[in-house]
Amino acid sequence: MMPNRLPSWRDNLYQQLLFRHCALCQLPLTQTEQYWCNHCITLFPNHPYCHHCGTTTLINVEDCGRCLSSPPRWQRLYRLGEYRPPLQQLVHQLKFYGKFWLAQPLAQQLARQITHPAPLLLPVPLHWRRYCQRGFNQSHQLALALGTIFKSRVDPHAFQRVRHTPSQQQLTKVQRQHNLHHAFKLRRQTLSDHVAIIDDVITTGATVHQLTQLLIQHGVKQIDIYTLCHTESSVN
């Protein structure tokens, strides 16, 4: 089982040897480039988006039309890009193929988007069954990397997933909300006024909505969402 920790010097040496060439185009990296070349990074699908819900928009806006009428209860969402190639493949490699070391370079790219880091980072938890299958929690790995960059505290045990649920894929927004009903509990009674929930992909926002509700009930004032990808989905 993969430990929940930041990469050691052995891991970093392995990464340097592995990524001497861009992991996407295979061209040699310059001394200032890591993991991916600057050209490939420009291919990440990073379009203007609503800074409240994460939906792609024509220009960057604080609130899209949907948020003006029915805003999410968190305050700010930061994303790296849309859930499309090449980010889609990178997230799949991180999440389903055990390439946990990708959390660090992906977090470095995401961190560039975050203007006011939260002092406390809370990764979305996995149920213990899924954790045993996967061997690690990708959201926790992202939180650890972001915590190192921002010098923020990471609490992987603040939330607990108390109910094992079927996969959220192919479910509508209403089905996802029902699927996650009473699936989480908050284990910490004392939290910072400003926290960020860390998730790898946001589709309908059902998961982070449930966690946001728990935080609001316990008096947290500002809740941000940090995610690698937002899925531009027709799921309703």
Q: Explain this structure to me?
A:
The protein has 236 residues and is of the alpha/beta class. It has 2 domains: 11-43, no CATH class; 80-230, Rossmann fold (3-Layer(aba) Sandwich). It has 9 helices and 7 strands. Strands 1-7-6-2-3 form a 5-stranded parallel beta sheet, with helices on both faces. Strands 4-5 form a two-stranded antiparallel ribbon. Helix 9 links the parallel strand 6 (194-202) and strand 7. Helix 5 (103-111) crosses helix 7. The longest helix is centred in the middle third of the chain and has 13 residues, at 138-150. The mean pLDDT is 85.
Query: What structural class should be given to the helix and strand makeup?
Result: alpha/beta
In this structure, how is the largest beta sheet organized?
Answer: 5 strands, parallel
Number of strands: 7
Look up the CATH topology of the largest domain: Rossmann fold
Task: Categorize the overall geometry.
Answer: globular
Give start-end ranges of low-pLDDT stretches: none
Average pLDDT taken over every residue = 85
H/E series, N to C?
HHHEHHEHHEEHEEHE
CATH architecture of the largest domain: 3-Layer(aba) Sandwich
| Gyration radius, rounded | 17 Å
CATH class of the largest domain: Alpha Beta
**Discrete helix count:** 9
How much β-strand is present in the residues? Answer: 15-25%
